[in-house]
Amino acid sequence: MVNEIFNTTKEAMDGAIDALKRDYGTLRTGKVNPSILDNITIDYYGSQTGLSQVATILAPDATTINITPWEKHLVGDIEKAISAANIGVNPNNNGESVQLFFPPMTVEQRQESAKGAKGMTDNAKVSMRNIRKSANDKIKKLLKDKEITEDESKKAQDDIQKITDTFVAKADDTFKAKEAEVLKV
Q1: Same domain for 93 and 38?
Q2: Which of 41, 68, 114, 139 could form a disulfide with 97 if both were Cys (CB 3.0 to 4.6 A apart)?
């Protein structure tokens, strides 16, 4: 019973780390990443659809993203959606595709990106603490229902804390690596 709680806790915290890494993908670093467009959607036959579902998105070099829709009539919609998303560049429409030309990042932009990564990391840590609280509540319920002893409850809560500490350290390491990547010129 307690081992199930440990396994569930580890899986949930792994999920929090994965979500953190996905969030980092939306940050701009020295080299452009097509995932910066992940949160942009367009109206595609009445439903909001992500750009990657209606177009090929490529980064041919470190400062350019090229978006080629599978249906040419979507070029204008894609251009409007990118303008509305305010990602820091103006889209260029050549009738066939949309290009985004990113200028080199300034020191201030790099620091702002690093600050964004820090905020994302803090959110992941909050998520991990909520997972820890949920696991501890389950342990306390087992104790209340007299399925485990007081000593087993204390040890299980200590183990949950160790798991949490491990994953918080992993989040910090992930942040340090991302921060180094963002700040590197």
Answers
A1: yes
A2: 68
